[in-house]
Structures are given as C-alpha cells and as structure tokens.
Amino acid sequence: MSNDVEQSSPALTGSLRLLQVGAFTSQFDRLMIAPMLVVIAAEMDQSVEAVSVAAAIYLLCYGLAQIGWAMVSDRLGRVRTMRLALLLAMIGGLASAAVPDILWLVVARGLTGACFAAAIPGGLVYVGDTVPVKVRQAPLTDLMTASAIGMTMATVGAGIIADFASWRVAFALTAVVAGLLSFFMRRMTEPELGPPPRVWGSLKGVLTNRAALLVLALVLAEGLVLLGPLTFLPVVVHSSGLSVTLSGLLTAAYGASVLVFARVVKARTAKVAPAMLILTGGTMAVLAYVLLVITHVPAAVVVGTVFLGGGWAFMHSTLQTWATDMAPGYRATAISLFATLLFTGSAIGAAVFGSLVDSGRFTMMFAITLAVSVPLVVTATLGRRRYATKGH
C-alpha cells in the first residue's frame, strides 16, 4: 500500500486491511468446494455431478446478487451493506457445514454465494468513495492481490482440511471469519452518499449502449471459458490417483500464476495496447485447452492451470478496465452487470461440465471450452481495437 494512503489516516488504513481480508475470504469461500467435490460426494453417497450443482448454484447466486447489493449499498450505505452481507454469509456458511443432505447443501451454498457477492464489489466501491484518485491504484492492487491469494489458499487449504478433518470444517471456517469481519467493520467510517440513482434509468443507459452490450456478451463467454472448468481441475488431477490434498496443491498454481502475471500486466499496461493484452491472455487460454484436450496427466493440468491464470490476469483485467469506461454515466450499474454475467457464465460452465466430469469425459469438457475460447479471443481483440480507434 502506498505511503500516501498510510499517512492520510490510520483509520482508513485499518479499513483497507479489513477489505483485503474480506476479499481473501470471499475468494477462498468461492473456490474451496473445488478440491472437496470428491470427498463430499463420497460422504453423501452422491455423484460428483450432483455435488457440482452446489458449486454451480453458488456461482449463479454470486453473480445475480451483484446488482442487488449495488442497489442496497446506494441506499443503506457501503459499510452497513457489507456488514449485513457478511453476517448473512456467516449464517449460510454455518448452514453449509451442518447440512444433512445434498439438497440442503445446494440451498446453503446458494445463500452463502449470494451474500459473499457483496464483499469485493463493496470493497472496490468503498475505495473509490474514500481514497483520492491519485493514490487509488495501490489499494485496488492490494484488493486484487488479496483475492488471488484467497484463490490460491482455497485449493490448498480446503483440500488439506477435507483430508485431515472434514469438509464441514472448511465451510465453518469461512463462516466464522465472515462473522468476525462483520463485527470489526463496525469501526469503519461510512462514506457520504448523494441521492441514490434511478435503477431503471441506469439499466436502460447500459443496455442501449452498443459497446456495453459487446463487453457484457464477451464477459459471459469469458466466465464459461476461464472459470467454468476451474471447479473441476482438482477432480481431473485426483482421477490420476493423487490424494485430494495433493490435487488441490497442484491446482493452486492457478492463484499463484494470477499473482505473478498480474504484476506483469501492471508493468506493461502503459506500454501495450489493451487489444494486445486481451490477445495475449486469450492466446494463453487457448493454449491451455489445446494441451488439456491432448492429455490430462497431472503435469499437463498444472501447466494448463498456469496458462489459465495468465489468461485471467491479462484478459479479464483488460475487460474489467474496459467495463469501467463502456458506459461512464452509469458506471456502478455497468460494473455490477459485468460481474453478474461473468459468474453466470461460470455457473453455466459448472452446470454443463458436471455430468461430463462425473463420467470421466474430461476431453469433451476441454474441447467445448476450446471451441468457445477461439471466437471469444478474436471478437474481444478486434472489438477492443475498434473501440480504441474511435477515440476511447
């Protein structure tokens, strides 16, 4: 974090630390079911496909709740909204740890996903409301870093907990942290807000904007390509005979690669055109799926996972930046719709791929994502280049 931010206010520095913990916890909770699918399925005497429904519903609710929390925060306040959402996430997490069967697991994970959905967008908006623009980049980078570490630790930590304790302990752990965060956030200063914007006017402003519609369509496909198979990578590795812990440890390369490549993107942003950043990330995703269509041995999955992390760092970060500019008069609504469609695409992927993974048809899953990724990369690259030529 920059010295300017640290010296401006100790209270603000403490608030930003809490937001980082919130981002970490949100991402840990979102991805931790991936290395535990096999363990949960075995204990509940269900198929991996059945358990993956809980992951799909979590992602769907996580995405759909984004715009709802944006509306609530405009009226209730940023801090109050995050505290309420985290308190409800604690309830959902504890319910997830106590469920008696798969149906209740799906319900509990859906509730938890909808509530954790407020953590990262709430943090981004809070930073925008409280940190001067000249020093805003540092805390935003810290939030992204905390999110990446959360993703990395989820695939490692949740697998270890499931192997040596219980998957229920993992769900309970993030629930307790969410409750503690809700309690400690009471000390955060609530930003001053103006009159809340008119919801339908904002939606119309975004949905009648051609550039915005293109970006929203692209991010829906990106969610399918870059996030859809992510839930199942530990299962693919586990099918080779490795333990749940080791499978989670190997696929943790995703979060680690996001961390590394994010720094590369940050260093190159001022020198490389956005279209080229998208092309770089998209090419890495395509290469990942070409490799994974050919072979599923653990080493190939790890390499593919690293490429997917690079794809996320280059491509998604550029699309996200584009989203902040595609409809500047309706930025909050545009970004919430962007997040909603990203995780809707991810949920569609989890739902479609669950049956394929359960029957061991990994090649089909990766072939589908490869088939979608090629037109996605081409359209996104050309679309961003054309947007730039129009003076944006």
TrEMBL record:
One of its GO terms (cellular component) is plasma membrane. Gene3D superfamilies: MFS general substrate transporter like domains. PROSITE patterns: MFS. The keyword Chaperone does not apply. The keyword Transmembrane applies. It is a multi-pass membrane protein. InterPro entries: MFS, MFS_dom, MFS_Efflux_Transporters, MFS_trans_sf. Keywords: Cell membrane, Membrane, Transmembrane, Transmembrane helix. The chain crosses the membrane at residues 50-72, 84-105, 111-128, 140-161, 167-185, 211-232, 244-265, 272-291, 297-315, 335-356, 362-382. It is found in: Cell membrane. This is Putative MFS family arabinose efflux permease. GO terms for molecular function: transmembrane transporter activity. Residues 15-387 form the Major facilitator superfamily (MFS) profile domain. Its main location: membrane.
